[in-house]
Model the fold of this input.
Amino acid sequence: MSEYFFISLFAVVALVVIGALLALSTILGPRNPSPQKLIPYECGMIPQEEAKGRYPVRFATIAMLFIIFDVEVVFMYPWAVALDQLKLFGLVEMVLFIAILGVAYVYIWGRGGLEWD
Done:
């Protein structure tokens, strides 16, 4: 039970420090807004019209696919470390794992999920 006391004490101290720093920055921070600082963009140009078109989602899809396949590769590191203990069972399991990843990759590739156009 004493380990929970120190964890909660640390959390309380962290919250107090964060609250104190936020309060100090609000109290001591400079307050001198000017018309130049209140414009919507820092580049100095006021927009004349709305942005054209919608933001393409294709790159986000490719980024998510990359993250999915990249995270799956992380599972190969513990397997490589424990390969001596797992022997043939570990090898068969990893071959099945890579085969499933390969099927998913070929499916996504065939559906055009990796095309940038």
